[in-house]
Amino acid sequence: MAWSRYQLGLAALMLVTGSINTLAAKWADNFSAAGCSGTEEHSFQHPFLQAVGMFLGEFSCLGVFYLLVWRDRWRPEPSMAPSQPFSPLLFLPPALCDMTGTSIMYVALNMTSASSFQMLRGSVIIFTGLLSVAFLGRKLELSQWLGILVTIGGLVLVGLADLRSSPTQKHKLSEVITGDLLIIMAQVIVAIQMVLEEKFVYKHDVHPLRAVGTEGFFGFLILALLLVPMYYIPAGSFGSPPRRTLEDALDAFCQIGHRPLIALALLGNISSIAFFNFAGISVTKEISATTRMVLDSLRTLVIWAVSLALGWETFHGLEILGFGVLLTGAALYNSLHRPLLARLPRRGALDEREALLRGESAAINGES
Q1: CA distance 70 to 177
Q2: Is the pLDDT of residue 97 over 90?
Q3: Separation between Cα atoms, residue 138 and residue 40, nearest integer Å
Q4: Rg of the chain on CA atoms, in Å
Q5: Angle at 21 between CA 40 and CA 18, to 5 degrees
Q6: Most confident of 198-212, 231-245, 327-341
Q7: How far is CA 241 from CA 59, 143, 238, 323, in A?
Q8: What pLDDT does residue 341 have?
């Protein structure tokens, strides 16, 4: 069945905004600018401030939800189901997981390439599968277990590619290893978030945009308040230069004042996450969850291609091989092989068809 123009537009919007989300964050990390009080130029390393911006983008989904509700009320036949009563605090635990995992990933993005960052995020399949078995009582199929094993192999290949290419890039080998491990550790937290959402949130039939927006509200509020104590907490090499505290939001705003392009990168990150969530939810509704998964995998390829074109990283064969293996693992876990197998002619069906043809031929010959 051919896609409509609206469905094609949603798919393109999801692919483009999903790619911009990671590329804009990495673009901001690549800037250097002077800070407050005339400090010398230093790199823009403010992962927690970037995470606040990401949650602001998610928070904006709440406005989109209420806009859709308002528009639906003016229709002759409303299509949106009435909201079910629920406590907003239900979203607090998954929001805390989202806040922690996202912050760790933005720290890691300062240490590794954008493409490796996006590829290693595929490890969430492993932890989501294992946690769903342990806490949701789900039974994984053989293809899903195989998908987890293949994904592990893909992670090894991506990690080896990082180790081989790190001497030619600006990141030190120790930074690359630390960054890759932080990304994988963050996926454990993201997997916990997904299990919590499925166990406590989705059973209340909350609209996805409302769920994303409410989590964004909690994440934005809590992390914005935490920026104050982070300003005074020393963090050594993990801290924001030049003061080397956990986060220096004042220095970030001073750098933005000296290099306005940083504000453009941050705005791209904030707006893209809002549109990406909206497009992703709409793709699931209008097309299928499988299509959403495929598009999410394709944006990894887009991020890798753009990073190569901009000279942010160098080509390495192991990386594209690792991407292929990760894509295969994700396809197996999400049962993408089933539609392909369904199209293949079955042996029993062929035998039955041949028998019918032989019978039809005999009947014709008998009548003559």
Answers
A1: 49
A2: yes
A3: 55
A4: 24
A5: 165
A6: 231-245
A7: 29, 47, 9, 33
A8: 60
Q: How many angstroms separate the first and last alpha carbons of the chain?
A: 44
Q: Is the pTM of this model over 0.85?
A: no
In the block, tokens 């990150």 appear at 269
Helix or strand run (H / E) with residue 294:
helix 289-309
Q: Packing angle between helix 124-135 and helix 317-333, nearest 10 degrees?
A: 30
And the tokens for 3? 């896609």
Q: Which phi-psi region, left, alpha or beta, contains residue 247 (left: φ > 0; alpha: ψ -120 to 50)?
A: beta
Cα–Cα distances in angstroms (integers) from residue 341 to residues 141, 146, 318, 332, in the given order: 16, 16, 29, 12
For residue 13 the two structure tokens come to 């919007």
Q: Burial code of 226-255, b = ≥16 C-beta within 10 A, e = fewer?
A: bbeebbeeeeeebbbbebebbbbbebbebb
Query: Closest Cα to residue 129, out of 336, 337, 333, 335?
Result: 333
Alpha-carbon 288 to chain mean position: 17
The pair of structure tokens assigned to 82 is 């009435």
Please state whether the peptide bond connecting residue 242 to the residue before it is cis, i.e. omega within 30 degrees of 0. Answer: yes
Query: What pLDDT digit, counting tens, does each position of 292-310 carry?
Result: 777 877 888 889 889 888 8
Residue linked to tokens 């166990």: 199
Tokens of 54: 């990401």
Residue 328 near residue 150, CB atoms below 8 Å: yes
pLDDT (tens digit per residue) in 41-71? 899 999 999 999 999 999 998 998 888 888 8
Q: What angle do CA 167, 168, 170 make, to 5 degrees?
A: 85
Please give the structure tokens belonging to residue 7.
């469905």
pLDDT value, residue 361? 41
Phi and psi torsions of 217, nearest 5°? -60, -50
What distance in Å separates the CA atoms of residue 55 and residue 51, rounded to the nearest whole number?
6
Q: Which residue has the tokens 């959403």?
A: 292
Closest Cα partner for 197 from 181, 184, 183, 211?
211
Q: Can you give the pLDDT at residue 238? A: 77
